[in-house]
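STRUCTURE REQUEST FORM
Protein name: Phenylalanine--tRNA ligase alpha subunit
Source organism: Eubacterium oxidoreducens
Requested output: structure tokens
Priority: standard
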Amino acid sequence: MKEKLEQIRREALKKLQETQDLNTLNEIRVSILGKKGELTSIMKGMKDLSPEERPQFGQMVNDVRKNIEEILNETKQALEDAALEKKLKKEVIDVTLPAKKSKIGHKHPNTIALEEIERIFIGMGYEVVEGPEVEYDYYNFEALNIPANHPAKDEQDTFYVNSDIVLRTQTSPIQVRTMEKGKLPIRMIAPGRVFRSDEVDATHSPSFHQIEGMVIDKNVTFADLKGTLQQFAKEMFGEDTKIKFRPHHFPFTEPSAEVDVSCFKCGGKGCRFCKGEGWIEILGCGMVHPHVLEMSNIDPNEYSGFAFGLGLERIALLKYEIDDMRLLYENDIRFLEQF
Ligand SMILES: [Zn+2]
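Status: completed
Returned output:
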């Protein structure tokens, strides 16, 4: 049995010397020191020894076990060191290699259009003002001269949070909030997300963006409105762009108009883009209703003003000749990369 023990020791040490990787090392550990390992099974043979020999043999087995464990741990440490060394060598940074090309995204067509519009109006001395998307019914409707029985207030058009609070259906409430602050004159644009309970189709979305503008000062006339929008249209759509006012009705303004620009594709002759009309509708506008001024504590005998509102998506669709609004929201990289 002593010979057998010595043989186990020799073979184990030989195997350990030859092993090259940690997995094999673990297999050796299990096969010798494990519950069903060689050393454990030789211990079972102790019952055949005389009582005097047993403690001596037990001591020998323990010595062999200790010896093998020592060598095993040393080998393990050496293998781990070697593996780390190898890994470090492999991961060395070669600064002469070409850099990884980092892909930077770019602005969404909506953002490009918005920044363009902001640039034009800031150039005319306007301030950009923002307001809450969840808004009181009062600011969204009542203070804008939209009475309780107005069809726009219907639940089919408006998302109600409760009977007093809505998701704003327009950015006009920001104008009321600005007027209420009482700092005159006002020259502002208010861009932002608005909400209507519309079904999604090529020209509708339950969430889209508006930009409203308002000027309030002494002696502001419709001529100022026309000049301002003419200037905007030229800068946005090209120097030769003409504008046309069509009488319309909005509760917030009186008189009110819808504004068309001459088709920047065909110059007004009529083409597929303008559906043969030569004109494209872009916004609504008018002189701020005296009642609206009064509600915000501005004296309509002293002050007057104009306001206008346009859909950001509509401008982006026109400017980039996109025929389906849904494309703006689908986040398809292939589409967005074109701008
Ligand atoms: Zn045209």
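Reviewer notes: The first strand starts at residue 127 and ends at 128. The radius of gyration is 41 Å.
Form closed.
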